[in-house]
Amino acid sequence: MKSVEFSTTTTLSAAAEEVFEHLADPNNHVGLSPLLVEVRDIRRGPAEVRFTAVERFTMGPLRRDNVVEVTLRLGEGTITGDVASSGGVRVAYGYRIDSVPGGTRVIDHYRLSAPFGLLRFAVGQAKKVQAARGRELTRRFQVRRSPQT
């Protein structure tokens, strides 16, 4: 299987610890990816969090729910994981979370492999998810900072 790697960088107006805690909580992942519609069976350990995630793919009136097991490995300023999805798609991903002047920089990195014929579709979906995640994180942390009216 062929592998492809890609990254995005997002800068947030929040403390690195706050961003880390947000990304380490599976409940916060719902809506962070437009495909992720549910998390359940959360199991927390000292250096990792395991959970079941439901990804929803739609094409017109057709809908397919893909149930995957996810492990978040929590490191010093990093969160990494691997997902084995249907169709032979494998994703190794990671967040590098660093303090920068005025906030936090998050580098969102993917290494994705898939069988021939599925790779282009899987990479396209993953890049859309990654871009949406950066926009949603930015929105979430702007909302937290906005004064209530």
Q: Can you summarize this structure?
A:
The protein is an alpha+beta fold.
Question: What is the CATH T-level topology?
Answer: Alpha-D-Glucose-1,6-Bisphosphate, Chain A, domain 4
* CATH class category name: Alpha Beta
Count of distinct structural domains: 1
* Number of distinct beta strands: 7
Rg, please?
16 Å
Write the H/E string, N to C.
EHEEEEEEH
Largest sheet at a glance? 7 strands, antiparallel
Q: What structural class is derived from the secondary structure elements? A: alpha+beta
Helical content (DSSP H or I, runs of 4+): 10-25%
CATH architectural arrangement:
2-Layer Sandwich
Low-confidence stretches: none
The share of residues in extended strands comes to: over 45%
Number of helices: 2
Distance between the termini: 53 Å
- How confident overall, as mean pLDDT? 90
Indicate the overall shape.
globular
CATH superfamily: START domain
Strand order of the largest sheet: 1-7-6-5-4-3-2
InterPro entries: Polyketide_cyclase/dehydratase, START-like_dom_sf
Pfam family, one: Polyketide_cyc2
Organism: Streptosporangium lutulentum
Protein name: Polyketide cyclase / dehydrase and lipid transport
